[in-house]
Design goal:
The complex is a heterodimer. By secondary structure, chain A is mainly α. Chain A is 57% helix and 0% strand. Chain A has one domain: Non-ribosomal Peptide Synthetase Peptidyl Carrier Protein, Chain A, CATH 1.10.1200.10. Chain A is globular and about 35 Å long. Classes of the chains: A mainly alpha, B alpha+beta.
Chain lengths: 84, 150
């Protein structure tokens, strides 16, 4: 799966948890999940669990702590996929 | 840690404690009961002259027994958090109500863990009355964290 395809998949997952006043078009690589996309920490856990299922990877607490932006998430996904 | 310790650790007190007794707590779920007292003040207004337990309080009872008691048990499993004061927050509920609960009815709540990851606990819950009839059911999730500074 290409970098772009992973980004699109991630966007699809994130869009499920966006509040009503944030659109999928607001998602950029630099978007902060909590402060900019207004996703709450409980929904961020669901995003992580969906990411795990979609990419067949397992994230650790440290990964979760480092996942502030969409780009952070993509980097973590990339790192996990190259390792496996 | 026995079940009494879990109840003592609950961050609730009268008039908002909806756990009388825990019957079983494992890593996968919790079971406990509560009897709604006819003396509770909310029955004066819900409804006028016709006391019925509000659905939000059935949800609260399910959350306290099914989610929070289980969450405290799971926190206790993490050894380093043994003496920490837990911080909890409800994050979502999705409930269906099938039968009314009239005071002084006793209800039995049982929960099943869906997942507990990254401080989020999600459970399915069921509440039965003493006739073993299903009163309400649903899914409840919350965040829980040990407060190291507490």
């Amino acid at each position: 799966m290409s970098q772009e395809a992973r980004y699109q998949k991630l966007k699809e997952i994130v869009s499920i948890y966006l509040p009503e006043d944030v659109s999928v078009n607001d998602i950029t690589l630099k978007s902060y999940f909590l402060d900019e996309l207004n996703i709450n920490s409980a929904n961020l856990v669901d995003i992580v669990l969906d990411v795990e299922d979609e990419f067949d990877i397992l994230l650790e607490n440290d990964d979760m702590d480092g996942m502030k932006t969409v780009e952070d998430a993509l980097k973590i996904i990339d790192a996990k996929l190259t390792r496996s | 840690m026995n079940y009494k310790d879990i109840i003592t650790q609950l961050p609730y007190d009268q008039p908002f404690l909806f756990v009388d007794e825990l019957l079983e707590v494992t890593d996968d779920g919790a079971k406990g009961c509560y009897t709604f007292s006819p003396e509770a003040s909310f029955y004066q207004g819900h409804f006028k002259g016709h006391p019925v337990t509000p659905g939000v309080l059935l949800t609260e009872c399910c959350a306290q027994i099914g989610l929070v008691c289980l969450g405290l048990h799971l926190l206790q499993q993490e050894k380093s958090l043994r003496d920490a004061h837990p911080k909890i927050a409800l994050s979502s509920t999705d409930m269906e109500f099938l039968l009314p609960v009239f005071p002084p009815e006793k209800v039995i709540v049982s929960s099943k863990k869906v997942y507990y990851r990254f401080h989020k606990l999600k459970c399915t819950v069921q509440m039965h009355n003493e006739q073993q009839q299903l009163v309400c059911k649903g899914t409840i999730a919350g965040m829980l964290k040990a407060d190291d500074h507490g």
